[in-house]
Every structure is written in C-alpha cells, then in structure tokens.
Amino acid sequence: MIPKELFQKVRRIEITTSRLVTDVFAGQYHSVFKGRGIEFDEVREYQIGDDIRTIDWNVTARTGKPHVKKYVEERELTVMILVDLSSSCRFASVNMLKSQLATEVAATLAFSAIRNNDRVGLIVFTDRIEKFIPPRKGLQHVLRIIREALYYQPQGHTTDIVGALGYLSKVTTRKTIAFLVSDFLEHADSRGQNHARERLKKALSIANKRHDMIAVTLNDLRESEMPDCGMILLEDAETGERVYVDSSSRELRVQYQTLNRERLKKRGQLFNAIGMDHIDIHTSLPYADALVKFFLKRRRRRARS
Questions:
Q1: Distance between CA 60 and CA 162 in Å, rounded?
Q2: Running DSSP on this structure, what letter comes out for residue 55?
Q3: Are 68 and 44 in contact (CB under 8 A)?
Q4: Do residues 181 and 216 make contact, with C-beta atoms less than 8 angstroms apart?
C-alpha cells in the first residue's frame, strides 16, 4: 500500500512535470535526440531538390527514369536515468532537497521520453546500485519510476559514479540516451583526489563514447558560498564528519568560496575534455529554464551537423 503522503507527492509531480512537458518541451525532445539510425522506406521518382546521392541506380536503369531511395529515421530510443541518492543529495538551503529536485527532473525527462514512444529505465545509486528498473514504455511505468525515486530508502551514504556507469554498461546492450543526475560530490580514497578525478574521467569518457551521456548537476548556493552568521556546525553528509567554524571570518568565507569555485571549474573542464553535455540545475532556480537552454543548444548543434 502506497502511503497517502507519497501518493500525493507523486500526483503533484505527475501534474507539474506532464504540464511542463506539454507546454514547454513539446517537440523539443524529439528534435534533439536522434534515433538509432535510418531505415529504408521506399523508392520513388526523382524530384527537383532531391540529393543525387540517394539515387537508386538499379531501379533507374530498369525503368529508364531516375528514382531515389527514401529513408526515415528509426525513432524508438532507450532512455536511462541514473539518479544519485547519496546523503549529500538529501540537502538544500532553499526550496527543495537536491534529491527531490532530481526526482522532478527525472520525471520531466521520463514524460518527454514516453510522449515520443521511447522506453525509459531508472538506476538509483549511492556507493552501490540501490535499484534498477528496466526500460519500458507507458504512463504507469513512469509513475513507478517517480515513486521509486521519491520513496526508496538507500542503504549507502557515499557516492560511486564509476560503479553506476559500470552497471549501466552491463544492463544495456545498445546505445542509449543516459542522463546522469548527481551533485558529483565524491570523496577521494586513500590514493587521493587526483586519482579519483582521473578514474571518473576515464569512466565518463568510456560511457560517453558508447552512449549519448548528459550530466545533470545538482547544485545549492550554500555549497559555494558561506553566509556570515557566527559560529556554525558543518557536517559532511556522506562521512558524518563534523567541524565548528567561525563564519564571521571573512578570510574563511573567501577561502571556502575559492575552493568551491575551483571545484566547479574542474568539474566543467572534465565534461568539456571528454565532449560530454551537461546541465547545471540549482535548488534556487527553476530547473525548466536550464532544460530549455540545453534543448535549444542541442537543436542548434544538430542543425549544423
């Protein structure tokens, strides 16, 4: 039995995101994601403006009139949504938790997929694979995805994006559109931060070559800037480590801001280095704006190719 409170949350997200898909993303999703390839449709007589490279010379020779081959795009796609539910995602200083923001973004993408008759699946992960829902079609399937993303109680606390990407390669046999929704806050092991960054870069690069990978980064203002409010207790959500700091110290606030700006800069450089698209989502800003910007950018790029 689904708790009444959860049912109401699922229903609210369904209404909000499906309306968003209808009003904002109608046609956008279809225009920026290519099908698996093209398939032969028919042969017809040549018309002015047809590409001469599509002429079917066998039919032309047999009929004495130029004919061209017509192809259509094979539209059916598989969309995989990887959602990070580690402890650092259960945080926000405004509006909604990053984990809830991730659920709404996932719902929007899932509804966009089924509107185009595509299959959509879900991988929930922390430092382990928490939940896998194989890709399928249909409204009830998307509602299940929303319920799991909202209601699932993860066992892990830290983040292992490399492990999630490895699992994606095991459960997919062909190219997919894969949205990786995470705050990308991973803790380095004993081998250090540089080793962790190179390990992540290698895994993302391999996945991006096999799939159409898009990173959806979850961000909160307090992860970049520290307010001036005296002595405060900071806790690392994933390790539980606590420390008191004096936020009235301007030097400390500047250092905190500098370190986090450098972190975000390196994250952007990582995506650019491997040619991977990314969408920056913030708890303090409407996520629809970021998605629209992404769709427009992809559409312009596809038009040039």
A1: 53
A2: B
A3: yes
A4: yes
Do the Cβ atoms of 159 and 187 come closer than 8 Å? yes
Q: Which residue matches tokens 């390196």?
A: 266
Q: How many CB atoms lie within 10 A of CB 61?
A: 10
Half-sphere exposure of 177 (CA within 13 A, CB side): 23
| 0.85 surpassed by pTM | no
**For residue 143, what are the contacts with CB-CB under 8 A and spacing of at least 6?**
10, 14
For 40, the token pair is 């032969």
| Residue 146 burial by Cβ neighbours in a 10 Å radius (0-12, 13-18, 19+) | buried
CB 286 within 8 A of CB 223: no
Tokens read off for 297: 């950018």
Give the DSSP H or E segment for 276.
none
Q: Where are the domains of the chain?
A: 4-30+76-304, 40-74
- Please check whether residue 30 is in contact with residue 168, taking contact to mean a CB–CB distance below 8 angstroms: no
For residue 235, the cross-strand partners are 242
Please give the CATH topology (third level) of the domain spanning 4-30+76-304.
Rossmann fold (3.40.50)
Higher pLDDT, 76 or 276: 276
Cβ neighbours of 271 (radius 10 Å)? 19
Amino acid (one-letter) located at 25: F
**H helix intervals, the chain:** 4-23, 28-32, 57-63, 98-115, 139-151, 161-171, 193-210, 250-273, 287-304
Task: Copy the structure tokens of residue 170.
Answer: 């095991």
pLDDT of 42 reads 73
- Residue 83 tokens, joined: 């959602």
Handedness of CA 44, 47, 50, 52 (dihedral sign): positive
Contact assessment for residue 144 and residue 179, using Cβ atoms and an 8 Å cutoff: no
Q: 């700091």: which residue's tokens?
A: 245
Q: What percent of the chain has pLDDT over 70?
A: 89
